[in-house]
Amino acid sequence: MTLILIIIGIVLVVLEALTASTFIIWIAFGFLCAALTSFATSNIIIIATVGIVTTLLSVALLRTKYVSWILPKNRTETSYNEIIGKKAVMKEDYTADGVSVGVATINGVDWSVQCETDNLTFIKGERVMILKIEGVRLFIEKEV
């Protein structure tokens, strides 16, 4: 039985390494602790209890530390409001009429854009100034 528990634990560790789901590792830890317990006793209830309790405790106590160790450390939280006042590039021709929208790209992301000034024409490739964001739409003006 000890060998079976060890094999299951190792297989789960390998699966965790392949998926990085940060969940399978805790089950693997429980199986490996159960395998260690099986060296001391052959009572299946004690072995199962140790496996379950160590799995639950490791999830509760260690998961946050594990995730912060696995995930990249230099992630930066950004706000879309940071692009207000920045420049975008028109992806298509667009003539403002107060209703229609065009498409512009900023930081590699395409956005729906609208200009509140009627009869302004924007040409594909033209740089525009972002004035504000409402929902998923950027409001733009000609670059100054």
How would the blueprint of this fold be written?
Elements: H1 2-19, H2 24-40, H3 44-70, E1 87-90, E2 94-95, E3 102-106, E4 109-114, E5 121-122, E6 127-134, E7 137-142
Percent strand: 15-25%
Helix content: 40-55%
Strand arrangement within the widest β-sheet reads 1-3-4-7-6
**CA-to-CA gap between the ends?**
75 Å
Number of strands: 7
Cα radius of gyration in angstroms: 28 Å
Secondary-structure class: alpha+beta
Mean pLDDT: 85
Report on this model:
The chain is α+β, with helices and mostly antiparallel strands. It is 43% helix and 23% strand. Strands 1-3-4-7-6 form a five-stranded mixed β-barrel. Helix 1 packs antiparallel against helix 2 and helix 2 packs antiparallel against helix 3 (44-70). The protein starts with a helix and ends with a strand. The mean pLDDT is 85.
Short overview:
With 144 residues, the chain is of the alpha+beta class. It contains three helices and seven strands. The strands form two sheets. The chain has a five-stranded mixed barrel. A two-stranded antiparallel ribbon has the order 2-5.
Provide tags for this entry.
alpha+beta, two-stranded antiparallel ribbon
